[in-house]
Design a protein that fits this description.
Blueprint lengths: L7 E6 H12 L7 E5 L1 H5 L3 H10 L4 E4 L2 H10 L4 E4 L8 H6 L3 E4 L2 H10 L4 E6 L14 H12 L4 E7 L10 H23 L6 E3 L3 H6 L7 E4 L22 E13 L4 E2 L5 E2 L5 E6 L16 E4 L2 E6 L7 E4 L11 E8 L2 E3 L1 H7 L4 H6 L7 E4 L1
Parallel strand pairs: 1-19, 2-3, 2-9, 3-4, 4-5, 5-6, 6-7, 7-8
Antiparallel strand pairs: 1-10, 10-13, 10-17, 11-12, 13-16, 14-15, 14-17, 15-16, 17-18
């Protein structure tokens, strides 16, 4: 093992990523192509190597959050189609043109600003707010929405190529949420069809995200924006999915010390843990909240040591945490600890950790800090 791994590291399985891409692609209709969402440094997995694998898998559409991410992706994917889902200041229109980036257009006023700043043509997809409530054209009817979109398509220096929206509750397949998602779908399809009836035929209409691809698949969507499922996590843990997913990220660290503690001995800040009896073996592990392993997991999470689950005891520190390893025979300094991932018959997922303190798997993997090296394996 390389010396710098002897603290905390994230293993990224490119084989798991490839498997997930293959299974996701099996859900796509002939009319739908995969758009890989790689914002936030590929959800914390490390953009560079993830992009290389995605290109090997034949992915050519990519979605990002901002211009910096888009330019970074362009360096790796000179022929890729890159869509910025959110806002880019209009004064950067020339950079959108220079790097051949597709910009999400959020309103007619925003489109006007881009049009004024553009030198030649800015490629764009028009965002429709069908019920998410964040960004996009917001109108009461598809016809009114089409009126505004038509004005955008008429601007001289904008090249409108698509129409898209984002679901609010596609990850919750109960009756009420299904009805809401169907209304969102119906609205954007009617808006697109209205534009087409006026002679405005856009290349792309897309509304499928990870959850919708699994629970509300629709061949009218020409792109499926796969995000969290690509990395092997659930849009809404533990709602089951129709495909097998393999978590791409594992998080590991090592034991730095093992000691026996006695009844009444306390551990870590605040003395929140006191040994209930003699003979408890406590191990210190080289990972903490500065690495992205949240302090909120204190006294709640388990990790795997020598194939056994061991509870986190005491408060998690910035760079270290403590475990009760009494139930794992022979634990010693240098042993590998699995905080996320599989060891033997045991597995801990980012989704499981998220459920312990009321967040989502997305936040867990995105929150693994930059000081934790990513190690890529097949």
């Amino acid at each position: 093992m390389k010396p710098y791994l002897k603290r905390a590291w994230a293993e990224i399985s490119l084989g798991a990523l490839e498997s997930n891409i293959r299974n996701i692609s099996g859900l796509l209709s002939d009319n739908t192509e995969l758009m890989a969402v790689i914002k936030a440094d590929a959800y914390g997995h490390g953009e560079d190597d993830i992009l290389k694998k995605l290109r090997q898998c034949g992915v050519k559409y990519f979605a990002v959050s901002n211009l910096d991410e888009a330019i970074s992706v362009r360096k790796h994917c000179p022929d890729g189609e890159i869509l910025i889902l959110g806002y880019t200041p209009p004064e950067y229109a020339h950079e959108l043109e220079e790097h051949n980036i597709i910009q999400g257009v959020l309103s007619y006023d925003y489109a006007l600003e881009l049009n004024e700043q553009a030198l030649r043509k800015v490629r764009c997809h028009i965002k429709i707010d069908t019920g998410m409530g964040r960004i996009g054209l917001k109108f009461n009817s598809p016809c009114e929405c089409a009126d505004e979109a038509e004005k955008i398509t008429a601007l001289e220096k904008l090249e409108a190529e698509g129409l898209y929206t984002h679901y609010a509750v596609a990850d919750t397949p109960d009756e009420d949420c299904n009805s809401y998602t169907e209304k969102q779908t119906d609205f954007i399809i009617k808006t697109y069809d209205e534009l087409k009836s006026r002679g405005i035929s856009l290349k792309h209409l897309h509304f499928l995200n990870s959850a919708a691809l699994c629970h509300h698949n629709n061949s009218r969507s020409t792109l499926a924006r796969a995000g969290i499922i690509m990395y092997g996590l659930y849009p809404n843990y533990p709602v089951p999915l129709p495909i097998e997913l393999k978590p791409v990220m594992s998080l590991k660290a090592v034991v730095s010390q093992v000691k026996e503690i006695h009844k009444g001995d306390s551990l870590s800040y605040g003395r929140t843990y006191c040994a209930p009896c003699d003979g408890i073996k406590a191990a210190t592990v080289t990972v903490g909240y500065a690495d992205g392993y949240s302090r909120l997991l204190s006294g709640k999470a388990q990790v795997i040591v020598r194939g056994k689950r061991c509870p986190v005891i005491g408060r998690i520190c910035m760079d270290q945490l403590m475990l009760d390893v009494t139930g794992a025979d022979g634990v010693q300094e240098g042993d590998i600890v699995t905080l996320i991932g599989r060891d033997g018959d045991e597995e801990i997922t980012a989704d499981e950790l998220a459920s312990l303190y009321g967040t989502i798997g997305y936040e867990i993997v995105c929150g693994i800090s930059k000081r934790v090296p990513r190690i890529y394996v097949d």
